[in-house]
Amino acid sequence: MRSQDGLLEIGFMRTVFDSLGAGVFVTDTTGRLTACNPRAQQLLGRPQEEMLGRDMHDLLHRRKDGGTSPRGECGLLAVLDSGQPAEGSEELFLRGDGSLVPVIWAATPLRHEGRMEGAVVVFHDFSLHRDAAEQTAAYLAALEGLTARLTMVAEVSTVLIATLETPEMLDRLAGLLVPDMGDWAAIDVRSTGHTGEMQRVTVRTADGRGAGEALTGPLPPLPERTRSAAVQALRSADPVVLDADALAGQPDGPLAAAHRELFDRLGGTCAVVVPLHTRRQVFGALTVARVAPDSSYSEAEVFMLSDIARRVGLVMEAAELFEQQRHVAETMQRQLLTPLPQVDHLELAARYRPAESAAEIGGDWYDSFLLGDGVLTMVIGDVVGHDLKAAAHMAEVRNMLRALAWDRTEPPSLIMRRLDEAMTHTSDAPMATCVFARIEGEEGGPWQLHWVNAGHPPPLLVTADGHTRFLEAGHGPLLGLSSALHMGLGWPDARADLPPRSTLLLYTDGLVESRARDIEAGLATLRRHAAALARRDVEDFLDELLIRIDPSGDDVALLVLRTPPAGVGTGDDEAPPQHAHSPAASNRGAPGSRIEDTPVRDTSEPA
Fold first, then answer.
1. Please, which pLDDT band fits residue 186 given cuts at 50, 70 and 90?
2. What is the pLDDT of residue 34?
3. What confidence score (pLDDT) does residue 334 get?
4. Which long-range contacts (CB under 8 A, 24 or more apart) does 34-42 make?
5. What is the per-residue pLDDT across 308-357, written as a single tens digit (0 to 9) for each?
6. What pLDDT score does 447 carry?
7. Which helix H or strand E contains 17, and what residues bound it?
8. What string of H, E and C letters represents the secondary structure of 513-554?
9. Which of 379, 528, 388 shows the shortest CA–CA distance to 456?
10. Could you give the 3-state DSSP secondary structure of residue 63?
11. Span 585-600, pLDDT tens digits
12. What share of residues in the chain are helix, strand, coil (percent, to 5)?
């Protein structure tokens, strides 16, 4: 008889056997089932009575097609032959309802007192593990897709802010979308007017053969009515997905035909057309297409392309508003830079170059006019600020100076004092710098400069033989600081002779100062180039000076005076002085004032 402890041990082992979370069955040395636990019955959908005594392989082991697999290929039976443990995965067991369940298993030989008694097989439903692995793989794939989309959006954002030139930005954008989002991409934009004209600005292809270049250029205008889904995208803010059926339809107008030509030339089995838009308007459309058979665009891809198009629309709107502000400021500033007067044998010329950035325009100006006593004035100035408001303040200061000076014969220092007081008490214009000068000459005598300088870079005098010097005298505080007068500061009058054939240059700080160069280096560069150009006529002098210095960043104003040869001018009985607004001056076109939009670059070595 078994002892009480032995019985308790057997009972405990039976409880463990029945409670295991994995299926377990036991076979004898021939492969017949001798025991199975409840979990095995549950996984196989068979009661214990149906399985005990049956051949394990014949009852359970199946191929994928449901047929019985050969006994020689059964890894579980091999354990009985080899006496060595074994394991496997994705074997198929036949359930009681006829379905197949994939299992992962491990089999161990069962020995008792050195004799082979059979085998113990432990198994799990592998489909649970497979589903978990598939879910993990799906999550990883979704994460990779999201990462790729976020990377694409980040790269697009970098392209959108990299340049203010819209055509360049759109071309780089199309190149970024190919080939990740399609085999080719095209962008059509509407004109800024109300004509409905269209322009295809770029076509980029994945093969890089340049076939798209022939497809760019003017397009037919946007029709009033159209059935074309692609053209309707230009009238809406919704994306349009084109499948094979949509692409097979016939175009109903010239613009739809031009859009269809893209597919005829470049191929395509599916495409997405997304409008480049904001809440205010539609600027154009982006078309991205794939050419592989049975290809398509997912909902996530359409959403991402729509988001990219919306971002492009916002950038295009900002660029348009930016350009409008620049145009208004430039137009106002050009209207204020009046033609120069013609006086005796004095030669005058001027240049104004807008800043490279539309945000940096407005403060610089030059002026020259005749006073009531017939004396010629020269003015150069710069109001603090670089925007449309600065341009308005510049106009205000310029007009105040003209009004205060034209009928007075008092020294320039008094004119400057009156202007400072007027700016402080009657205007909201900020601080400004200015050089105000009278060009005076006596009968038979030399020409003379009488000037004051309110915080501005000093005038440069260049003699006919190339000697240069900055006129440092007459320097005082900036305008708009009347408190400086109460501190004993002012604008001392200064005088200097202007030798025959000498050149007097007034300029703003944009010519000599930039982020990459301090003003001392800029002044030295100006002096060197001006000396080399002393014998050029005044028009060439200014053009060549701008080419050689090539100022960048800020706007630049230049005003130059050339005195006549000795004995010519002040003592001659020639035509009386003429103002730029006089009929004679107008008939001659009032030469000498030129505003440059795009200065010519010099590729030669500077002298």
1. very high
2. 92
3. 64
4. 34/118, 40/123
5. 888 888 888 888 877 777 676 666 666 666 788 988 789 999 998 877 65
6. 92
7. helix 4-19
8. CECCECHHHHHHHHHHHHHHCCCCCHHHHHHHHHHHHCCCCC
9. 379
10. coil
11. 333 333 333 434 333 3
12. 40, 25, 35
What span, in angstroms and rounded, lies between the C-alpha atoms of 162 and 157?
Answer: 9
N-to-C CA span, the chain: 123
C-alpha to C-alpha distance for 155 and 176, rounded to whole angstroms: 8
* Closest to 106 measured CA to CA, from 193, 172, 164, 20: 20
Residues 6+ apart with CB under 8 A from 564: 344, 345, 346, 347, 500, 501
Considering only CA atoms, give the Rg of the chain.
45
Q: Which two tokens stand for residue 391?
A: 């341009």
Answer yes or no: is pLDDT of 253 > 80.
yes
Locate 475 and state its tokens: 């320097």
What is the reported pTM? Answer: 0.52
pLDDT at 317: 86
Q: Which residue type is seen at 441?
A: G
Condensed to tens digits (0 to 9), the pLDDT of residues 64-94 reads 888 888 888 888 888 888 889 998 877 889 9
pLDDT band at 575 (very low <50, low <70, confident <90, very high): very low
pLDDT of residue 140: 65
Q: Find the length of the chain.
A: 607
Q: How far apart are CA 508 and CA 354, in angstroms?
A: 12
Q: Give the residue among 524, 520, 521 at the shortest CA–CA distance from 469.
A: 524
Alpha helix segments (H runs only) across 337-411: 388-405
Do 325 and 388 form a contact (C-beta atoms < 8 A)? yes
* Beta carbons of 284 and 190 less than 8 angstroms apart: yes
Strands 447-454 and 432-441: antiparallel
CA-to-CA dists, residue 159 to 156, 207, 490, angstroms: 5, 22, 52
